[in-house]
Amino acid sequence: MAERILSGLGLGSRAYFRSPAYFYLLAALESLGRQSLWAPRIFQAILGSLTAALAGRFAFRLTNKRWVMILAGLIVACFWLSIYFDGELLITSSATFLNLLALYLLTFKAGQGRGWLIVSSLVCGLAIVFRPNFLLFSAAVFIWWIARRQYRNALILLVFTALPVLPVTARNLLVARDFVLVASQDGINFWIGNSPAADGRTVALPLFRRELDGEFLSRMKDDPWFREDVWLVSNYLVEKELGHPVKEGEVSSFWIGQTIRSMLKHPGAACALMLKKCYFLIDKTTVSNDRDEDYHRERIPILRQLGWFHLGLIMPLALLGIMLGLRERRSRYLVIFVFSYGFSIALFFVISRYRMKMFPELAIFAALALSRLSDYARGGKWKLLVAGIIMAGIFGWLSNAHLGKWNDRPIKSSMRYNLGLAMLEKGRYAEAVPVLEDTIAIKPNYPEAQLALANAYTLSGKPEESRSYYQRALFYAPDFAEAHYNFGLTLLRLNEPEAAYDHLLEAHTLKPELFPKPEAVLESLMRKP
Q1: Same structural domain for residues 36 and 103?
Q2: Of the residues 370, 400, 430, which one is the last residue of a structural domain?
Q3: 425-429 contacts at long range (C-beta below 8 A, 24 or more positions apart)
Q4: How far apart are alpha carbons 464 and 2 in whole angstroms?
Q5: DSSP per-residue string spanning 116-133
Q6: Residue 457 CB-half CA count within 13 A
Q7: For 16, which DSSP code?
Q8: Looking at the structure, do residues 69 and 55 belong to the same domain, yes or no?
Q9: What is the CA radius of gyration of the chain?
Q10: pTM of the model
Q11: Tell me: the pLDDT tens digits for 247-293?
Q12: E strands along 86-185, which residues?
C-alpha cells in the first residue's frame, strides 16, 4: 500500500477497508529512507522506546515513586512482544504509542486549561484514525463528562476529537460516495469474531479465495485491496447475496446485520463466546491471525532470552492493580481505557497485536500493584497485604490455566505457508520446500499449501517430485483452477501433453476469465525461445 502511494496510484476509489493512517506513515518513512525498510523499523524502535519512557512517566505521576517509574518502563521495554512488534511493518507500535499519549494527556494535562484539553482531544482523534477501537474509549470519557455535568469539556472533546477523523470520512464520502467513518473492516471482523463457527481467536473466512468466481476476481484484480482475502471474500459474498456491485459501507452493514441476527438466534452461545473472549484477554497465550509468534521468538536471540518474561507474569499484577485502582481518582482514565478498549477487542476476536495496544497500560497497573503491596507491608497492613497476594495468586492461576480451548493448527500452518510464499516470490525456491513441507505436516488438508509446495519443487528443477503434491491439492479441492493450470504446465515439462491438456482445459472451464484455453497456452509456449 505504501508503494502504491509513493508511485502515485493512491488507495483506490472505494472507501477505505482498513485505516489508511499507517499506509501513509509508512510511505513517508520509506520516502525519507529512499524506500528502505530500515527507516520505518528504526522509527518504530524509537517509538517503542518512547512508549516505555512514557509508561514510566505515567507511573511516576501516579505514585511519585522513582522505582515504580523504572519498573513500569522496564516491563514495557523488556516484554518480548514489544520488541517483536517494533520490527514488524504493522500499525501496532504507532497505535500503542498514540493510545498511551492520549491517555496521559487526558489524565494529567486536560485539567490544566482549555489549550491542553484541545491538544488531548486532537491526539484522541489521531488515535482513532490509526485504530478506530479508540473511539469506544473517547465515547466513554464523553459520557463520563456529561454525567458529571462537565459539558464544556465534553463539547471540546467531541469537536476536536472529530477534527483528525473528518478528513478521512470526507474522503470516503467525496471519492467513494460512501459514508464510512474511517474504515469498513469492522463488519466482516465482527462476523469472524462472532459467527456460529467462531472460537474467539481464529480468523476463519466463510469462503476460500480459490472458490471465488473468475469474473469477480478479474474485475477486482486492479483494486489496491485485492491481496486482502478478508476484503475479497466479504465483498464477493455480499455481491452474490444482493445481486449487484456493493460499496464498503454496504458490505460492513450486511455483515454486522448477519452477525447480530445469528447472535439473537442463539443468545446462549453468543454469551458463552463473549465470556470466552473476555477470558482470552487475560490468558497468557500469544495468538496472531497470521503469525506463529512463538516461531519467531525461538529464532531471534534477544526474543528467546526475554521469552521467560511472558504475559502470565504481568497480567496477574495488572489485574490486581486495576482492582486496587478502581477507587483512585487519578487512575480513573486508565481504568476506563482498559475496560473500554478490552471490550472493543472482545467484540471481535482476541489476538496479540490487538491486545498489545493496551499493554503499556497493563504494565502501569502491574507496577502500581507492587507499589500498593509495598505500602501495605511498610504500613503493617498485613490483612490487606495477604488479601492482595491471594488475589494476585488467583489472577495468576486464571492467566496461566489455559481454560479456553483453542486450535492453533491454522495459525501455525498459515504462518509457514505465508513464509513459503514469500520465499517463492523472492525466487528462493529450494528454501521454500522445507518450509512448505512443515506447513502440510501441520495441516495436510491445506490445498493452497500443497499447490505452493508443488510449485516450489517445479521451480527448483524437480518437476517429477511435484506431481504428488499437485494431485493432493486437487484431491482436497477438485475445483482448484490454479492447481489444474499449474499442474498442466508441469505435465508439459514432463512431456505428458494429453494429461496436461485435460488439466489446462479444466482450469479454463472453471475460470475462463483468468486461464486461457489450452490451445492458447500451447501456442504461447511455442513462441518462447
Answers
A1: yes
A2: 400
A3: 429/456, 429/459, 429/460
A4: 40
A5: HHHHHHHHHHHHHHH-TT
A6: 21
A7: P
A8: yes
A9: 26
A10: 0.90
A11: 999 999 999 999 999 999 999 999 999 999 999 999 998 888 777 88
A12: none
427-466 as b/e: b if 16+ CB within 10 A: ebbeebbebbebbbebbeebbbbbbbbbbbbbbbeebeeb
Q: Residue 240 CA to chain centroid, in angstroms?
A: 27
**Widest distance between CA atoms in the chain:** 90
- Compute CA distances 235 → 206, 213, 229, 248, 255, whole Å: 12, 12, 10, 8, 10
Separation CA 469–CA 452 (nearest Å) = 9
d(CA 451, CA 457): 10
26-29's contacts with Cβ under 8 Å and 24+ in sequence apart are: 26/1, 26/2, 26/89, 27/1, 27/2, 27/3
State the CATH number of the domain containing residue 445.
1.25.40.10
373 grid coordinates: 503491596
The mean per-residue pLDDT over the stretch 82-92 comes to: 93
User: Distance (Å, rounded) from C-alpha 409 to C-alpha 415?
Assistant: 10
Among 263, 280, 297, residue at a domain's last position: 280
φ, ψ dihedrals at 66, nearest 5°:
-65, -35
User: Residues 224, 16: contact at Cβ < 8 Å?
Assistant: no
Q: Indicate if 336 and 227 belong to the same structural domain.
A: no
| Domain range for 467 | 409-527
Contact 202, 410 (CB under 8 A): yes
Joined grid coordinates for residue 472: 493432493
Query: What band does 506 get if pLDDT is binned at 50, 70 and 90?
Result: very high
The percent of the chain in helix, strand and coil, each rounded to the nearest 5, is: 75, 0, 25
21: Cβ–Cβ under 8 A, 6 or more apart, which residues?
91, 94, 126, 129, 130
- H/E stretch holding 463 reads helix 463-476
d(CA 340, CA 134): 8
The answer on 331 and 207 residing in a single domain is no
Q: How many domains does the chain have?
A: 3
- How far is residue 251 from each of residues 129, 144, 277, 344, measured CA to CA in Å? 20, 33, 25, 20
- Please indicate, yes or no, whether residues 269 and 325 belong to a single structural domain of this protein: no
Q: Is 104 helix (H, G, I), strand (E, B) or coil?
A: helix
Instruction: Give the confidence band of 528 by pLDDT, cuts at 50, 70, 90.
Output: low
517 burial type by CB count under 10 A (0-12 exposed, 13-18 middle, 19+ buried): middle
Q: Does residue 123 share a domain with residue 12?
A: yes
| φ and ψ at residue 191, rounded to 5 degrees | -65, -45
Is 377 found in the same domain as 238? Answer: no
Looking at the fold, whether 300 and 290 belong to one and the same domain comes out as yes
How far apart CA 349 and CA 467 sit, in angstroms, is 39
